[in-house]
Amino acid sequence: MTSRMVLAKYISKQVLMPTAAVTSVALLLFTSTRFVRILEDTNGTELFSDLLYILVLSVPSYFVEVLPLGLFLGVLLGIGQMYAEHEMTAILSTGIPFTRIRNTLLFLGFVGCVMLWGITLFIAPSTSKVALEHQREISNRNPFDLLKAGEFNQLGSSDDVFYLENAQTTGNPIENIFMAQPSKGIFIWSDSGELININGQRYFKLENGTLLEGIFDSTQSNYTTFQRYAFLLPEVGEKRYRLQSATMTNRELIESKRQWELTEFLYRIGYPPIMIVMAMLGLSFAKTNPREGKFKMLLPALLCYSFYTLMLSASIRPVYRGEASFFQVYWWVHLLFLFIAFAIHYAGYWKFRNKVVKGSRS
To answer: Matching Pfam families, A to Z (predicted)?
Structure first.
């Protein structure tokens, strides 16, 4: 293994470890906030497994948003650590050009860019579409379908209580049923029951049971035994989910010829180069004086990152609304901050290089 490969491997390790850590934490925070939103969108009717399934399917979309920040802070912390521990001084003192370090980080940024292209163009649209369809399915699911056998269940925000000894399977009825509506003073015990469909409406039919209306042990209570008793299950209003452009394939976006969909396609192509810019911005802000601490430039770096992402958003939002041309999307923002990154990088590099050369001569 050549010295160039050894250096590239070491720098990659120094950068990728904090990148993975920051990305994991940011992804966890991002998904936790989306958890509440998904719960609201599905009316709180889904089981935990449904929520977990939706979150897993949504991870690729969230990953696209947090990975650039992860790489930016990874470069900032990793290279900053090398400056703080005088490793960078030792490397440059041996005559190794700084371009090797820069090129290694540019390569990592390019690999991240290709990764984001694969996610935004292919993986995220397909997983987002499946997640959207599953959200629609569980939001339109009747709450009665979610009752757990062997437990007391409460439907939504109502005070209705159900107990089922076993779940219904094909050809087998539900056994030993208890139902209560305390606010109405209605209590029902039944040996068995089943779901039936009549003219598109769903009924729950009970057999061999007792109906109590009123209060226990009260003269105003009415006990009624029945052989068959059926009631209409309330229909859950269908929640309309718009087929979002984020769930459409690339061909569908291009063939639609609508402003919104075409802009979404440009976003998928134009956003991933942020990884290359993040690698260079991280390198530019990573240079610190060991006496000043490796976190000196952290606040300016985060401010620059915030301004960068705001400008990216500002460049594409008018295009989504049809108030600007497609030519405005992203590219000039990437070039602007890439130029800023190189300007900061070379200004700091030559200053640092001159100090190293003067120190080695003395």
So the answer is: LptF_LptG (PF03739)
Q: How far apart, in whole angstroms, are the C-alpha atoms of residue 101 and residue 111?
A: 16
Q: Which of 152, 158, 197, 150 is nearest to 174 (CA)?
A: 150
Residues 135 and 153 in one domain: no
Query: Does the residue 253 lie in any domain?
Result: yes
| Sheet of 222-232, strand order | 152-154, 161-164, 174-181, 186-198, 201-213, 222-232
- The arithmetic mean of pLDDT across residues 31-46, rounded, is 65
**133 with 194, same domain?**
no
Q: How far apart are CA 49 and CA 66, in angstroms?
A: 25
25-39, 216-230, 264-278, range with the lowest pLDDT: 216-230
β-sheet bridge partners, residue 204: 195, 231
Q: Is the pLDDT of residue 126 over 90?
A: yes
Burial of 158 (0-12, 13-18, 19+ CB in 10 A): exposed
CA distances from 245 to 28, 117, 157, 324, 327 (A): 25, 17, 33, 19, 20
Domain end (from 190, 208, 232): 232
Q: Which domain holds residue 183?
A: 147-232
